Structure formats: C-alpha cells, structure tokens
C-alpha cells in the first residue's frame, strides 16, 4: 500500500491472480545410471503420491517378482518423499547397494487466464522452471564403489520388520515363563507371614498393598 494525501492507495497488482495452472509436465531425461539390469523397476514419485501405495508396488516387484534393481526418482516437493521411500525399502530388505544422483529438471507449467471477456480467445501463459531432482538406485547386486554417490549396504541390526516380528515372537515366549501376577502370589505370602503376626493377617495384608 502506498500513502498519498493521508490515505492508503493500493499498489497495482501483477494480474497473475486471474490465472489458474491447468497443466504441468516434466522434461524427460535419461536415467543417470549405466549398465542397469533388464528387469530394473523405476518408481516415479510425485508430490501427491501415497507412500503406502508406492511401497506396496515396489516391495512386490523386489520380493515376489525377484527384481534385482529399483530406481526411485522425484523432483521439486517430491524429493523428500522419494528419500523416505528409499529408506523404508533399505530397512525392509537390507543388503542393498545405493547410488544417488542429484540434478536439475525443467518443469513446464501452463497457466490459463480466467478473466476473459465472452467470446475472447484463450490466453495461456507458459512458465519454465528449473527444480531440483533426485534419482536413487538400489541394487541387490554389487555396484561400482568408485562412482560418485555410491553408498555400501548398511549393517543389519535386526530392527526392521523382520526384527520386530522376531522380537515379538520372543516376547510372547517370555510371557509364558513369567511368574503369576501379584494377586496370585499374595495368599502364599500371607500364609508365610501369618505366624509372625500376633494379630493375624490383617496387618500383613495392609503392608503388602503398599
């Protein structure tokens, strides 16, 4: 707002409030990984993608269909979600070699003018944006450790889903060997301590409750 003669004067608007984004497309670029396996799976992560749906499909490809390599790629606001998917898969499968490549991609946005006179021709505005992009290759087979972005498999600590299942099974086994609850032991303690109390078991029971 600009002040003139003691009154606020609105600043001229850019006119973009009359435009609505109607289409978005990304530049198609080749994958930055040489010598990929024939059965490599490519997961294109979008901003609105559901991680659960992505992981269900990716895990089915790696476990049920026996794929040896998988690529997760995303750009712009989908970069964080792409990294999340990779970390989940590494924790679930384990022993995966990783190569990460970061680059820029061109995104094409088409905006349409919504404030047109009747029978006026459409007015579109095309915007080219360079956004950060990430591609991450996960492989069951060893990869060249000298290439940039390589990360060896992480050591397994048994904290994944398999480790949690095993922990749950062992916990169930331990529950069977635990002593009975306190209320089941209480009568036995009373029987032992009753002879030492001249007043009977009332005083002893009160001490055990505390």
Describe this structure in words.
With 210 residues, this protein is of the alpha+beta class. The protein is built from five helices and eight strands, in the order E-E-E-E-H-E-H-E-E-E-H-H-H. Strand 1 (2-4) and strand 2 (7-9) form a beta hairpin. It is elongated, with a radius of gyration of 32 Å. The chain starts with a strand and ends with a helix. Mean pLDDT is 76; it is low at 159-210.
Layout of helices and strands:
Layout: E1 2-4, E2 7-9, E3 19-26, E4 41-44, H1 51-64, E5 69-75, H2 79-93, E6 97-113, E7 124-139, E8 150-151, H3 161-177, H4 182-193, H5 202-209
Helix pairs in contact: 1-2
Mean pLDDT, to the nearest integer, reads 76
Number of DSSP-assigned strands: 8
Helix and strand element order: EEEEHEHEEEHHH
Shape: elongated
**Low-pLDDT residue intervals, each spanning 5 or more residues:** 159-210
Largest sheet: 6 strands, mixed
């Amino acid at each position: 707002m600009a002040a003139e003669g003691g009154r606020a004067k609105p600043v001229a608007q850019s006119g973009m409030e009359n435009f609505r984004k109607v289409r978005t497309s990304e530049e198609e670029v080749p994958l930055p990984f040489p010598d990929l396996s024939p059965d490599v799976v490519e997961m294109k992560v979008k901003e609105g993608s559901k991680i659960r749906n992505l992981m269900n499909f990716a895990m089915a490809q790696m476990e049920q269909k026996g794929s040896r390599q998988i690529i997760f790629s995303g750009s712009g606001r989908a970069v964080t979600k792409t990294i999340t998917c990779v970390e989940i898969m590494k924790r679930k499968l384990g022993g995966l070699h990783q190569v990460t490549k970061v680059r820029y991609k061109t995104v094409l946005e088409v905006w349409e003018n919504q404030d047109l006179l009747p029978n006026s021709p459409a007015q579109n505005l095309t915007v080219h944006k360079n956004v950060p992009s990430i591609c991450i290759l996960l492989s069951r087979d060893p990869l060249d450790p000298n290439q940039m972005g390589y990360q060896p498999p992480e050591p397994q600590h048994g904290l994944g889903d398999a480790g949690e299942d095993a922990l749950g099974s062992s916990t169930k086994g331990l529950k069977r060997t635990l002593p009975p609850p306190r209320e089941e032991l209480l009568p036995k303690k009373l029987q032992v301590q009753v002879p030492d109390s001249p007043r009977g078991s009332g005083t002893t029971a009160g001490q055990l409750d505390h």
